[in-house]
Write a structure and sequence with these properties.
By secondary structure, the chain is mostly helical. It has helices at 3-22, 31-36, 40-72, 77-80, 82-113. The chain has 5 helices and no strands.
Length: 115
């Protein structure tokens, strides 16, 4: 496979991942929701929002990872530098997804003990 075919394949994959990453993003959890949460249903709704957010962040991280690889294989040194940006975003987005999952887990625990 030549370099241009690999780049084209990476770009097609990136567009596919991007459509998944940016489609149907769940609304964020609000401070009011956190403050008012008292029932199991309240905490489960918040947990679901954080789980959905984590899935979206993972999809965005995957897209940036794909883009980093595309920039690395583009064959142009100036363009290859862009891969550092995408690598950094991939790392940060994966960390944010893990934090969202941790928040979701806490709300699942709260739901289990709610009255």
């Amino acid at each position: 496979m030549n370099r241009s075919t690999a780049l084209l394949g990476s770009l097609v994959l990136a567009v596919g991942l991007m459509s998944v990453a940016f489609a149907g993003t769940a609304p964020p959890v609000t401070a009011a929701q956190i403050t008012a949460a008292s029932s199991a249903a309240d905490h489960e709704a918040i947990a679901k929002a954080f789980d959905d957010q984590a899935a979206g962040l993972d999809a965005k991280a995957d897209w940036h990872h794909t883009m980093a690889n595309a920039y690395r294989t583009a064959g142009k040194p100036a363009i290859a530098l862009q891969s550092r940006h995408c690598d950094a975003l991939t790392k940060d987005l994966k960390a944010a997804a893990a934090e969202s999952r941790a928040l979701a887990a806490e709300h699942h625990k709260m739901a289990a003990t709610a009255k």
